[in-house]
Write a structure and sequence with these properties.
mainly alpha, two-stranded antiparallel ribbon, 4 strands, 61% helix
Length: 268
Amino acid sequence: MLPYPQIDPVAVSLGPLQIHWYGLMYLVGIGGAWWLAGRRLDQFDPTWSKDKLSDLVFWVALGVIAGGRLGYVLFYDLPAYINDPSLILQIWRGGMSFHGGLIGVLLAVGWFAWRNNKGFFELMDFIAPLVPIGLGAGRIGNFINAELWGKPTDVPWAMVFPTDPLQLARHPSQLYQFALEGVALFVILWIYSSKPRPTMAVSGLFAICYGVFRFLVEFVREPDAHIGYVAFGWLTMGQVLCIPMILIGAGMMMWAYRNESAKRETVS
């Protein structure tokens, strides 16, 4: 068993002002994605200015934060937030939903694409390889908060989390998700998107890979205590939300390559 590194969730305290590591991880994710987007901006559209890229990053970040928080409220703990609406603003305590954040990003990108005469999936294919930066950083934030830990286990790298009332050795599932949703997903999408691909294909691959990675990790992650398993006695809410994501992603990739093939046949 590995000792859990005791890290204060508060990175900096300035009197009554406290800056939490969880919030800083979002800044790391947004900043990293912004920097990488700048490196590929000419490949995406050489006519775009840095200012336009900054506008895109701002709206996508807003979609992530607003959608992620509202998604968590709606999907995972609606009664608690109805009883105390002020909890919605306490983002530093955790409680962000990836699937809600994804909906927020889709809405933000749809609006931005319309305002700038860009194709929706053209923009989504540009953004998709950047998203794992934020996902990975967010999982590090979960680990520092000692939240969303895994199920009890006897693997050599198991940890006892200070927030666990039972004090059992558990899977560090936050680190599994960091490795898969952050590192592996970034490498796959960055390499795949480094060459021209049919429109919608990169977005489709993102949906498939994230859905599969999240679905697998959920088997060793402790389900939310107030929700438990929501289907068949073994599927968690995260897994239920990932199933349509995987299917939609597969459909998107099939459509993208069939459409590309049809265009080539028409030209020939």
